[in-house]
Batch of 2 targets.
Target 1
Amino acid sequence: MQAIQLQWIDYTILIAYVAFVIGIGLALSRYMKTSADFLTSARSIPTWVTGLAFISANLGALELVGMAASGAKYGISTAHFYWVGAIPAMIFLAVFMMPFYYGSKARSVPEYLKMRFDERVRALNSVAFAVMTIFASGISMNALAKLLHALLGWDYNFALFVSSGVVLLYVLKGGLTSAIYTEVLQFFMIVLGFAPVVYLGLKDVGGWHTMTTSLQTVATNPAAIYLKDAGTTYAPNAWTSAWQPVLAGPTHNPMGVDWFAMIFGLGFVLSFGYWCTNFLVVQRAMAAKNMTAARNTPLVAAVPKMFFPFLVIVPGMIAAALTTLPDKGYRIPPPVIAQANYDKAIADVKNANSADAIKIISDDLGIKVDAGKITSLVAANAASKLTDTQIQQGLYNSVAENDYDGVILSLVKKYCPAGLLGLALTALLASFMSGMAGNVTAFNTVFTYDIYQAYFAKGKSDAHYMWMGKVITVVGILLSIGAAYFASMYNNCMDIIQLVFGFVNAPLFATFLLGMFWKRTTATGAFVGLFCGIGSSALFHALTIAQGNMPGIKGGYLKVVSTFPSEMAQNFWLAAFAFIACFALTLVISLATARTKSDADLKGLVYSLTPKIVDNNAPIYQRPAVVGVVLLIVCIILNLIFW
Amino acid sequence: MGLDIRWPIGLMFTLIGALLAVFGLAKGAESVSLGININLVWGAVLLVFGVLMLLGAIKGGKTPPSA
């Protein structure tokens, strides 16, 4: 694919955006007086702002790119990551868990764990979280810099340093408040930047109805657009129904998952583990100005979250549908191939005369090709000489592999004229910055309060912690840049690191659930349960494998006890297994060990020992329980519409 | 905090919206996608959004909304 050329109007939009986010940081810097102002916003922000920031911090560039990719690969079922994998957990956080996070006056999730249990649990959680945020930020930065390099021809280092420099500037000046405020701006930027692309895509494909009809063709023969191996076939609704293919069983849906793994593994364990315990998002709600605002934060966030599939997944579905319509001249982009390889292949198309021409051309490109398409390309060239550009286009269309991560940008490129193009690319950059700022502000708070203040420098002045918070912001960004380079050099190591994070996160929600709702849970029970839960997920991974994978980093390296139809199913089941292990162990050990905290110590930290919040005075639309139920109903209706 | 976020959001989208719309008007031929002058149309949408945000900020005074 050729690099996109930006015009002055595109750069102007980009620069205007950068100027505004930096301006917000500068405008807020005079309010940064204490470490609490800088690291926790001193609990001063209105609900709609924390709510939109809550969702924006989660909406990183990887999500935009990845959800469009999954939309093409799996269709509307991808929306389960929203309707099953997010909304119920967000409502649960708002109604049941925020009272403890906010009411306990903890400044971070690890600090809550220290209040509820002891230092060991906090240390385990804070160190794991700190390392995780740095790598998460690095992985996403690497992906974005690569993307900008491939599509705009920008230098990798330039893309990396400029975007992290901007984030550093506004976070350093305005702290968490600045991150939250810019996240709101970024939220609107992302929505308003991508909405026209979705609209134009839908219009081009011929409307929603034509899109679903085309996707039925995809479902019955996904190999035609290289989505699956030849011979794989699904019911016509596999890409357009969210539930029926999943209920029909793992061989009947492109994700290869069963309903139990989907509901328990994704919908309960992974989803609640992320939304209810990850400080990155919870921090936004903790910055709210009062308890009602804190509890309503995830509910405000749930509204756009519920409709995001139409913004981020539908583009992938459009791409798959367009690929089946020959007159549209579009295909899901193939992996990027160097021009030198294309040149070699073009020469060989011209000289093709032997029977093994297909193999030669495939070797030139270094990729699997569609034999039929190459044969007709060679024949067409023999009949009437084609130009090099035409041959290259033919080769491009013959590559029998897809680079799903390129989907969203290929649509942007196809539909956006100069001007709108700048807006869409700015939206992409905004999503990247919001994700990175989210990671950095969560990292600096946890590091300063839960690692530095807790273990290295107790009882220093507030000015000292404020200074440390700023220093660690710079260090955090530098470490993320380091992690990005590491990711670009050692892809395999990154896979291992992400795998380990999966192990660490899977059992976490069991610890919170028991800790918050059962006063008998002891610190030793929580610590050992969590530790063994992590161990059990590693063990589960070592003993299982997904179909088509070789034993090794993908699992099954000790012994293959069980085989799953897909990696996604393996992940969901792993989470379910780790949760149950952690839950059972924490329960048993808690019963076997003596309590170290009295009922009085646990007041405000455990459900049964905390006075219930009575919201009868609040207007009905501000009562979390009422709003939560309404949102749940809307979510169920969405599921039924796309049943 | 003392800054109402609706100010910067409103200002930015008003600015970008106006810019896009003017660009769409001036360079109609380069702004068309699928037969629509998308820069003009979407610029206008952004402009309206930006102005609404600014109106909210002006009406709300210096204090953030109490919701």
Target 2
Amino acid sequence: MTKIKLRGLKLLERGAQVVSSNPGDYNFLAAGICSPLALNKINLTFVSHAVLDQSGRSITAFCTEGSAGRGSASLVEAHQGGTSTVDFHGDMSTLSVFPHDQRPEVTGLLLHALAKREITLQGIASSPSAISSIVSTAETEAAIHTLFDAFEFPAYHSPSDWYAAYEGKENLLRKIIASYQEKVVRIYDIVQQGELDLWSVVIGQKALTKLGEVLMALGQRQIRMPFVVALLSSDNNLVFNFCFPGEQESQIREIFSSHQGNTPLTRHSQVAALYIHGPHFGDRYGIAHTLVRALERGGVSLLALGCTVSSISVIIREEDLASAVQALEATFQKSS
Amino acid sequence: MSKKYVLIVDDDPDLVETVCMMLEAKGYEVGKAYDGVEGEESIKQRRPDLLVLDVMMPRKDGYKLCAQLKADSATRDIPVILLTAVGEAVSTTSYTHAQGMSTEAEEYIPKPVDSKTLVEAVESFFA
């Protein structure tokens, strides 16, 4: 398989992941998850969220620093009052590769490579530049070697080269960020992308190779994929949400059916993506809470969300785009 | 008239992507690099009309790269905007303002930089 040339790889180690299967309520993410975590000053290094049906039933996965993991799971459990299932996964790492440039083959090759080594994928989220995957800390080293087999990183000849360059970097940043928290959250920009469809497929770990092939085939057709999240459900299946341009529906259906057979594939048409990028979004508490509360106040229901590296990507109905931008601009400090 | 070529060097890939989109929308051609060594190699391959340079990066930090460029007669006149988190908001860091000022960059912008300030700073070099 041909290697894809990328530019970088980031690792956040020794985190914890909490997965919550939520009841039918579009506002549950804000009230039941983000709010209690923000009030307790818990920083989320990764968030993915996908609505499963029209009732608003959803799954949310988030990562924290390892020491905050169990407490975060308890907080969410206490706020959901027995209406949802909360699973805790300790000792997790987030591996991010960049830039993906909206190429589905980057995610495809990543899935293919992890599946080949039988590394369990615990979740995925995209940012405008990166694809982040969650794997257990025990499998992190194997995952990094796998990524070097699948991708070419010109700045680093080998995993040991990369480790040598990366040592200490995250710790230094964490020290710096700890002292930085504004009253009104500043953002660099809000970027909009419309005329998209949101696709959803539920698969087991063993089907990741096939799904990887689908995404690589989509890439060969030059189809762009600006958004992806994957969440591990309580029955150990992975719920994938992808966005593709609406005009390419027939090609996408054809490629999925030729590789995935009868696996049910659902599509939500006429959606839009919003990307919000701000300084140190991955290192401070309360950002996701500020965003989902702003959208809730603006009457906008989230269909999916991915939060990783230093951005939050949200998927909403296209008809809600203007209200969403207005709500976010009224909440965050943006000067252009 | 050919487009001005701006190279952005920052290890926050989402920031690179955002700044790239903003500057491309203003008609600039934008190159991307994600650490100091990659930035240095990129400059050797193609000389930028302007360099936007982060300070804290793996392999080679922005101060070192800037100082190196300013010490070399072949690259001394490339204008450099340093994006520095060494500001009031940061109290715990091994980087200092004194280091920054000694690098002779043309412009210093404290992080978090807003998009308007950065675009205006870039445009001021080509006015």
